[in-house]
Design brief:
This protein has 7 helices and 2 strands, in the order ααβαβαααα. With 135 residues, it is mostly helical. The longest helix is centred in the last third of the chain and has 34 residues.
Length: 135
């Protein structure tokens, strides 16, 4: 495994590919609950929901989400995932869209803008409620 080769002292207690069904969820959660640190690469929003469920069960560890990083690590086979020119020009996002357009175009062009609009609306509403309650 690439992580063990790169970080010889790391202890990896549990690994799951994330393709488990609802019936297996309890098994996965009970194994992960024993870990101090969880790196979750299930994609949004599954990874956030997974860590929230762990927290709701009383888990007090540290959780990190990393999107598709682990997929990129495996695909790169120990090398560099991004071509050098992509790194130099700081256009990783464009490279990812070109590599996975069906999955990423809707996210970048539809889901993220909608999410930002909803965020701004929520912030404006909460400010409005706060100023009203101060009166």
């Amino acid at each position: 495994m690439f992580l063990r080769a790169s970080y010889p002292g790391v202890v990896i207690s549990y690994v799951s590919d994330g393709f488990y069904n609802q019936d297996e969820t309890e098994f996965v959660l009970s194994n992960v609950e024993r870990c101090d640190v969880v790196i979750c690469s299930l994609g949004t929003p599954r990874q956030e929901s997974f860590l929230a469920e762990l927290r709701a069960r009383g888990w007090h560890g540290t959780g990190y989400t990393c999107g598709g990083f682990l997929d990129q690590l495996v695909e790169a086979d120990g090398g560099d995932y991004y071509p050098r020119v992509v790194d130099q020009l700081n256009i990783r996002w464009l490279y990812r869209i070109a590599s996975e357009p069906r999955r990423l175009l809707p996210r970048y062009l539809l889901h993220y803008p909608i999410g930002m609009i909803l965020f701004v609306i929520d912030r404006l509403r909460s400010r409005s409620r706060a100023s009203t309650s101060e009166l």
